[in-house]
Amino acid sequence: PGRGSSWLPPSSSFFPDLPCMLYQGRRYAYKKVQRMDPSSIQRGVRQFKTYMSLKLDQDDTQFPLNDSKEIQRFYKYYCENLSRTSEKQNFEELARYYQVASALYEVLRDVTNNKVDSEVMKRAKVVEEKSAHFKSYKYNIVPLNFPGSAEPVVELPEIKSAMDAIRNIDGLPKPHMSSMHREGKSIWDLLDWLSLAFGFQKSNVENQRENMVLLLANISTRTSGQEGHPLVNTVNDLWEKIFGNYESWCRYLHVSSRIMIKYDDTELKKQQLMLLHIGLYLLIWGEASNVRFMPECLCYIFHHMAKQLNQMVEESYFQPPPGFEAEGSFLNIVIEPIYKVLQKESQRSKGGTAGHSSWRNYDDLNEQFWSEKCFMKLGWPWDLSADFFHQEGRSARKPKTNFVEVRTFLHLFRSFNRMWIFFTLAFQAMLIVSWSSSGSLSGIADATVFRSVLSVFITAALLNFIKVTLDILLTFQAWGSMEWTQILRYLLKFFVAIAWIIILPVTYSSSIKSPSGAGKLLNSLTWNWYNQSVYNFAIIIYMIPNILSALLFLLPQLQNIMERSNWRAVILLMWWIQPRLYIARGMHEDIFSIFKYVFFWVVLLTSKLAFSFYVEISPMIEPTKFILDQVVGNYEWHEIFPFLPHNLGVVITIWAPIVLVYFMDTQIWYAIFSTVFGGVSGALSHVGEIRTLGMLRVRFKSMPDAFRKCRVAAHKEQALDVRSFFCVWNSFINSLREEDFISDREKDMLMAPSSSSNLPVVPWPPFLLASKVPTALHMAMTSKEGDDHELIEKIKLDKDRYNAVIECYESLKIILVCLLLDYNDKRIVDDIDKIVRNSMQNNTLLEDFKMAEIGKVSNTLVKLLQLLKSEPTDDTTERKIVNALQDFMEIATRDFMKDGHGILKDENERKQSFTNLNMDVIKDAFWREQFVRLHLLLTMKDSAMDVPTNLDARRRITFFANSLFMKMPRAPQVHDMISFSVLTPYYNEEVLYSSHELNRKNEDGISILFYLQKIYPDEWKNFLERIGVDPDNEEEVKGCMDDILIWASYRGQTLARTVRGMMYYRRALEVQCYEDMKSEQDLGGDESARSKAIADVKFTYVVACQLYGMHKASKDSRERGLYENILNLMLTYPALRIAYIDEKEVPLPNGKMEKHYYSVLVKGDDEEIYRVKLPGKPTEVGEGKPNNQNHAIIFTRGEALQAIDMNQVNDLYFLVLSLVYQYILHFVLSRITILKNHLK
């Protein structure tokens, strides 16, 4: 129905003087819908037919049933106007105009029974030829292939520069005309050239073309160019981000990079070659499907394809590699073989139930490309006989690499071995010191005690031996494919651990003069050799590796350099400390962060050990010695350990809980110290300073200045008007009203004036000025004559009260002047104003006015404002306004002013004063806002401390206010910010609640709707107020079920709630971008369209609806409802994109059917934009959710990606938006490459 009637608004706007055509269009639309769905089964069809029937019944008596001549004349006139329409036109508008022309011709043929004259047919043919481009070409964000498009996004200078850069194909070898004709392609830019060279899919090329343009455009806003080469630094920046991982991979494998850029080339040529390589990588990434989870495999593929690319460029001869001539050949030759390997490995996993050693996952396969052996084993194109590809008939299977998971509780010790070793050694040392004669820490100065404490290194050697043994046992299954250097490292560590177990006890025993027990036995092995220093030397040698590790830890920059170094000497030095892997190298924090980390744990562990020593261990020593010295000849109670000497059973029993608490109380100390340190850090960063509405009111006036400091870049310190903050504040309050967290009155109290009215004071939101004016009026009423100065000073004691009085007076004067049309009436207002100002200047206010009557003036004014708030609908209401205004003026002059009797004297007996009013002012939104504000200031007699009443609204408001005072890096302007996307995976959950689900009662007789009404009573009341429904009228409430479904869905875990929350990002960007342009004085009349264009460039939201295609084709009512609800979301939010996996059966030459899978992106009214073929069903490999995200990630845009689950809602969008691009700008982009391109 929507598509059938989409021509009506444009035709109406083009030719409003021909309503007959509209009637015929409605009539034909009704017939067409009736023919398509006679039983009104589809959603919305019945409503459409009902509406059309009413309109046709109204128009039946006005227009003739058939007037073919008039309709044909109308069609000719329309086509003539369309031909004169400028080609520099908005793409969407032109497409709609041509759609109107097609619809008009369809109506014309129906009316004339296909009997149209030859001229009309000729015009229709021309229109059809011109509209073919619009029908075939679809675009996502930027209409790149539409010549002459005047879309605002295309007019952005950074977009134009990026488009010009990728369209530079001068100097590249030309493809053979035969191949171009065979593929039906023409070369417009670098990506078209690469597509012909390597057989990439057309849709993939179109997708990555836009992706590349947006990347260049966004980066160029933060980089400076050179004269004549505006994108030089931009391309270099993108180059470093894209190929950072590839260059690192090449250095790791000690192979030369295949990217050949000659530095003696011109800047334009170098830029072209760099963009050519960037485009190649993006095209590979765009078709890689599940292989995107293997980034080093992508590096391998690019490495070889870049070599082939360089050969073509250097030889200046276009020759695609063998087998890559046809479109889609890259997918078939390069990606599909790897996908089949992944698919077979996934089948071996048996849904994750098989043992970890029996199958290979993404990481295991990707690790094959961490060794230079991959070049020899895999070759190029792929050597399908290699073990990597699991050829059929082979019994041998490639084993796991580097790591095989072995599930055992022994991981509790192995994974946290440093913690166990430290606490064990500390416990042993404290026990030795406590057992000494002094029993205090000072006893460690005693040589004997100190020598005993040094025995902890023997314990350390034993625990290290256990750890090394576990390393071997738990990695043994990976030894079949592990590098021999790693195996050697494990064995050497094992033998070294054994050696230290022998060396340390022997040297320790030799350092004691008269050893006893085990020490005496060990000393006898060394022929009673006595030397105190040898044990000390052994300890020093034993500690050397640990000392080096500690130094590297405390010098993170040095450690980062050494870990990333590919020098063989450094590799050998680092080899002993940790195994050499490609990933997780050089990821250490800066030295200041390390210092804070070390300081935190030193303080924590010092406190923990001190507590353990003085409270847990020392008090137990004397009782333990006493128990050990006791001799028990006959047990009077049950004897548990009858053969243990010295009552060791009792000692073990009383020490067991002490030891248990000793090892477990670290978590308690961590909770205490994290709370303390977190509180101090939060206080220094000003986190959560505003906790109540009272604190918000106190700090509110400093919020505009805080907003200025947050929003303006450091090099742009110009002062922003307070209304810039008010614009953002009002947008935030409006969102609270849209979500029904506040009522209409609360919204009016929280809103600030949307535009300036030349007031001498700052018009703060009314909730800050509540009760100020009534209090001032009461002061004036109780004042005595002659106390003018005292009255003014009393009012000035509260600055807000004084400003509120000034604002009320000035606003009243402005309203009256704009409301009155008669010159004499305006003169009366001016005369009264002069009297008031003279009284204020001469301090005779109480002498010239009867302050006891000011309450009556206020009440009359309130009645007038109440009428002005209500838009008049008839003459009766207008007469009421006139009467109320006359009453106000009469009371003000006759009762309130002592000498005002002559002011209202009518000069004309028949013409009364204040009857000629500008009623259009009442309908204007700006003036209605002024009426409401003045009415609130006069009537709010309480303090409004409970506004808003909704707890969630309070939480959001205080959080928004806190975000302005938090210590954060300053945010750049929207035009200069980091571009990013949000990706939400969706499977089969609810999009919107249905009426049946809301009203279905459970076993307790409670429905979801009833439950929501009871737990959100204020929001339900606000919702009914917003849609204008009486809560007591149940029939009227039931008639608004569509609105109720949306209200309830926004309070459940539905996709609609998440989409609404994420789309707040876009609204925030538009608001902030508009304010940026105002601050830069960059207003050219099209700021709204430009703000939307910049928001499109900076933000993209994609929902990965895995089963959208199946829901679309399904006949099940629930699944069909999910499809229609998602479609409605796309219509509600035009910037929303839906990505799904489509499945189609394609006939083979042998007559069988084969399933093909595609990644599809749609927008708007289910308009397909891209369709990229996949090597197979992506969700069959690995887990469903990450693969659902992975197939859709190619449709995201920007330099960063935020993954949001479906059950999350973005209710703090201004803060989160600021945090996102501040964090990325200051802490991420300086360290890593484009996030989504590497999936790491």
Automatic annotation (TrEMBL):
The record describes its membrane topology as:
Multi-pass membrane protein
List the protein's name: 1,3-beta-glucan synthase
Q: Give the keywords, sorted.
A: Cell membrane, Cell shape, Cell wall biogenesis/degradation, Glycosyltransferase, Membrane, Transferase, Transmembrane, Transmembrane helix
Q: Determine if Transferase is one of this entry's keywords.
A: yes
GO CC, any one term: 1,3-beta-D-glucan synthase complex
So what EC number does this one have? 2.4.1.34
Regarding protein family, the annotation reads: Belongs to the glycosyltransferase 48 family.
- Check the record and name the PANTHER family matching this protein: 1,3-BETA-GLUCAN SYNTHASE, LYST-INTERACTING PROTEIN LIP5 DOPAMINE RESPONSIVE PROTEIN DRG-1
Superkingdom of the source species: Eukaryota
Q: Name one GO biological process term.
A: (1->3)-beta-D-glucan biosynthetic process
Which Gene3D superfamilies has this protein been placed in?
Vacuolar protein sorting-associated protein vta1 (1.25.40.270)
Reaction(s) catalysed by this chain's protein: [(1->3)-beta-D-glucosyl](n) + UDP-alpha-D-glucose = [(1->3)-beta-D-glucosyl](n+1) + UDP + H(+)
Span-the-membrane segments of this chain are 419-437, 449-470, 490-508, 534-555, 594-615, 643-663, 668-687, 1212-1234
Kindly list the places in or outside the cell where this protein is found, as annotated in its UniProt entry: Cell membrane
Q: Which Pfam families match?
A: CALS1, FKS1_dom1, Glucan_synthase
Does the keyword section mention Phosphoprotein?
Answer: no
The record's GO molecular-function terms, alphabetically, read: 1,3-beta-D-glucan synthase activity
1,3-beta-glucan synthase component FKS1-like domain: residues covered: 272-383
